[in-house]
Amino acid sequence: MKDLITAIGLLLFIEGLIVALFPSKIKNMLKLIENTPENKLRLSGVFFLILGFVIVWYIKN
Predict the structure, then answer these.
(1) What does the DSSP assignment read for 13-48?
(2) Cα–Cα distance between 19 and 33 in angstroms, integer?
(3) Are 12 and 5 in contact, with CB atoms under 8 Å apart?
């Protein structure tokens, strides 16, 4: 459970850092995402989900 909370904290830290450093680029990216078809977003989400799982599995084993 401690590892999960640490991972969530790191995720929030990295996302906050990116938004703080590049606010205008984030706004442009959000506009681009708004025009992207849902299927493409879903496929990207599944890809990153699997990639994250593989990274965590590799580190833990």
Answers:
(1) HHHHHHHHH-HHHHHHHHHHHHTS-HHHHHHHHHHH
(2) 16
(3) no
Instruction: Render pLDDT for 2-25 as a digit per residue (tens, 0 to 9).
Output: 888 999 999 999 999 999 999 999
Residue 20 CA to its chain's centroid (Å): 16
Helix (H, G, I), strand (E, B) or coil at 61: coil
Provide the whole-model pTM.
Answer: 0.69
Domain membership of residue 10 as a residue range: 2-60
- Count of domains in the chain? 1
Q: Which 8-state DSSP code applies to residue 8? A: H
Contact in structure between 26 and 19 (CB atoms under 8 Å): yes
Task: Report CA 7 to chain centroid distance, whole Å.
Answer: 12
**pLDDT the model gives residue 46:** 97
